[in-house]
Amino acid sequence: MKRNNFIFLVFVCIMLVFISCSQKSEIVSKSAISVYTSLYPLQHFTKWIMPEAQIQVLIPSQIDPHNFEPSLKDIQKLFNANMVVYLGNTDIDRWIDKIKDELTLKGIKVVRLQDYIAFKKYSLGSEIDPHIWLDPILVLEIIKVIKDKAQELYPDKKDMYEKNFSLYSEKLKELDRDYKKALSNCSLKEVIGSHEFLNYLSARYGFNFHFIVHEPEEEPPLKKIQKLKNLIKQSSIGYIICEPEGEKIAKTLSEETGVKILKFNTFHQISTIDYFQAMRDNLEVLKTALNCK
């Protein structure tokens, strides 16, 4: 998603003036640790490490994170936090880059994950792919960064954070082993998805990912549809995997080719199940799509 940087900078300047002049602020308990994350999976992972903290998400669950625009109230929340965790220069939360220096000057611990983790670019253009949370090994890197920064901010809690990190790092390693084992003996290597969300997972576990559209709100080009039809026929693909937002797009290709649709949990919205259950459900989806034994 492209934004006019000049307009946004002006907007941020106005908001910063308002915040500095405002006599109103959110009432937070002096003893409470306040953490804001840009999106739900980062809240989920931060809670693993810092269960005692009040951790809130900036992007509401009913809004597509790729299309989120911060309000004045959203910006003000960050200036009342102890820690802010976000991805970096992605179309989800790059707006935080514009104010991270001001946040740091206020004594807020700003955790920009892109400074510590190697992100990939989307297949076309220079835009950064944000979907790192769908790769268990990259999630391990995420929680290590959060643990390290939390220990810097609260050294008296170092042992607790280290213990929590050890617990979840072992769970993530086990999940990684399960994926490697389950996807090691499959008759197919091609997976078709509704939009471009499996670049990290496919690279990690050795299958080829093809997508109908780059983002869910786009209309698929006729040339792309024909290319996917040919791939389905040539590779005997029987399924399309999609997230809820991409079901309409997947249904179009499904009706034209006869392939079935499998639901995939991209875990970017607030969920009633935890990450490990969601990813094991996703593993079953991939095993079906790839015809694994």
UniProtKB/TrEMBL annotation:
- Family under the similarity heading: Belongs to the bacterial solute-binding protein 9 family.
The reply to whether Oxidoreductase figures as a keyword in the UniProt entry is no
The record's GO molecular-function terms, alphabetically, read: metal ion binding
**Keywords for this entry?**
Signal, Transport
The record's section on Pfam families has:
ZnuA
Q: Which spans of this chain does the record mark as coiled coil? A: none
Q: Which organism is it from?
A: Thermodesulfovibrio yellowstonii (strain ATCC 51303 / DSM 11347 / YP87)
UniProt superkingdom: Bacteria
Any one Gene Ontology BP term: zinc ion transport
User: InterPro entries this protein is in?
Assistant: Bact_metal-bind_prot9, ZnuA-like
SUPFAM superfamilies, per the entry: Helical backbone' metal receptor (SSF53807)
Protein name as catalogued: High-affinity zinc uptake system protein ZnuA, putative
